[in-house]
Amino acid sequence: MTREKRRRPASGGLMLMLTIAIFILSVFLVIGGAMGSNAGIIILGILGALGFGLLCVGFFVVQPNQAAVLTFFGRYTGSVKDNGFWWVNPFTIKKKISLRARNLNGEKLKVNDKAGNPIEIAAVVVWEVDNTAEALFDVDDYEGYVETQSESAVRHLATSYPYDSDGSEPSLRGDIDTVSEQLERELADRLGRAGVKVTEARLSHLAYSPEIAGAMLQRQQADAIIAARAKIVEGAVGMVEGALTHLAERNLVELDPERQANMVSNLLVVLCGNQDAQPVVNAGSLY
After folding, report:
1. Which DSSP letter does residue 137 get?
2. Torsion angle of C-alpha atoms 259, 262, 267, 269, degrees rounded to 10
3. I want to staple 139 with a disulfide (CB 3.0 to 4.6 A). Which of 83, 194, 212, 217 is the partner?
4. pTM of the model
């Protein structure tokens, strides 16, 4: 891994004044040599003008949230992260690189979850370059590297969790925060080699594949109905138990086992039924 070196080059303003002075001197030398028919002075003035042009190549500007990576004849000499107007050796190659935060909106991927169900999943990743030397020298194309590794991490995440679960284990749909933290950690490990820091990573799309979406919706509806019925029955049994207990404590009516069974049956039908009960007035005896 390439270690980043911070560098503060010469001030561009001071070098600009020096360069202008060299240019003015060169002009005077050429004019003076021409007026005095002195070839040596003319050549000196021309060399000064060539030097002026060469010095101008060394100027560069670093914008806010931008860096310039410097290489001199194939050797990395440092990174300039301080914004401003600078000057370096004219033979130094200056490669600009953005340090701004970027969004990667991943495409929808069709993969199988941990249970083998085909799902569609996508993620959004917020990232920025942290180590300019690693970004430029340790990987071929750091932007393409981020895209490829992000897609690989999302695929691995999808196969590590089921789409939905009964609460016994984390799921993609029910534990968004846990899943997002896992995705962010994995991306940090994968992209650290490219000098990239992951700021945030979250799922932006999650759904069953169209071919099984209808069947999975029916299963979810059935699970919801079963859970609701279980809750209704549990509440109805408690209400019936409470009614029998209150009747016995207040001695309002004395019920034998057969009448109790009939009362329990009627109450459960009323409390658990899908439709409103139709009362029937019994004017006679049960016997």
Report:
1. H
2. 180
3. 194
4. 0.69
